[in-house]
Specification:
Layout lengths: L1 H27 L7 E13 L4 E8 L2 E5 L4 E14 L9 E4 L2 E9 L7 E11 L11 E14 L2 E15 L7 E12 L4 E7 L1 E4 L4 E16 L2 E14 L7 E11 L2
Length: about 260
């Protein structure tokens, strides 16, 4: 009886841990989940310019939720890029350093709507923090951002949008007028593995040019010494870019998770 009770207790604990980790995997699929996380997203692209150059961008993306009241959350999402960009042409100059910060603030209800949708909206800001003029816009910018998604039966689908206009900065640099669209569709398996198909498309209204990558990403929630984290690996194919843009790339993400 004692052995049976021990096995039953262990099975119950294991089931609870799996449920918790599966819930974390589900929350990571939600851009506005009330979950503190710090993704380190490494992106490598190739086929750039006449030299078929490679480019590396590591995005540091802390997500921090705040409770506004019993009904509303505020979610802060920051993107700080660290860029290594060799010259795409022979004899050109290489550039490395940090780029411009994009800061988004979402305000939305804590609970889904009656039809099961979660949403958030607020402002997005462009901060000219680049350490090298070639790695940033040298412009201050702002605009709206919004996200809507639904989660049911393991599926997560929805989209994120923002638009940034520049309003100040160096007068000899091009104005910023760009729309960002991120539709996503994913499934979280009972093994805490999530497979996601998404795009991170940008339309530059100044140059009338799309950049459209399609990403397929697999992620897995793990735990070491009671610290949960996620590892993700993905492949990216560019179906539309400006002239000299990349052909394809890969993505690796380490996400530190701090459940509340």
């Amino acid at each position: 009886m004692k052995i049976h009770s021990t096995i039953l207790a262990f099975a119950t604990l294991s089931s609870a841990l799996c449920a918790t980790e599966q819930d974390l995997a589900k929350q990571l699929s939600n851009p506005i989940a009330a979950l503190i996380s710090v993704p380190f997203q490494y992106n490598w692209d190739t086929g750039i310019g006449s030299n078929d150059t490679d480019r590396s961008i590591t995005n540091i993306q802390p997500v921090v939720p705040f409770s506004l009241n019993d009904d509303l959350n505020i979610i802060s999402r920051t993107i700080l890029p660290v860029i290594d960009s060799p010259s795409p042409v022979s004899g050109g100059e290489d550039h490395s350093g940090v780029g411009d910060i994009v800061q988004s603030i979402f305000v939305g209800p804590k609970n889904p709507t009656s039809s099961g949708w979660l949403w958030g909206a607020g402002p997005v800001f462009l901060l000219p923090t680049a350490s090298d003029n070639a790695l940033g816009t040298e412009k201050w910018g702002a605009g709206p951002t919004a996200v809507a998604l639904k989660q049911e039966n393991g599926w997560t689908y929805g989209g994120l949008f923002n638009h940034i206009w520049s309003f100040a900065g160096e007068s000899d640099r091009a104005n910023v007028n760009a729309t960002f669209l991120q539709p996503f569709w994913g499934y979280t398996f009972p093994t805490q593995t999530t497979l996601t198909l998404l795009s991170e498309s940008t339309y530059d209204w100044t140059t009338d040019q799309w950049t459209v990558p399609i990403n397929l990403v697999a992620s897995q929630v793990l735990k070491v010494a009671n610290q949960p984290f996620s590892l993700a690996l993905g492949y990216r194919k560019y179906v539309e870019t400006p002239e000299g843009g990349p052909d394809w790339g890969i993505r690796f993400v380490l996400t530190l998770i701090f459940p509340k």
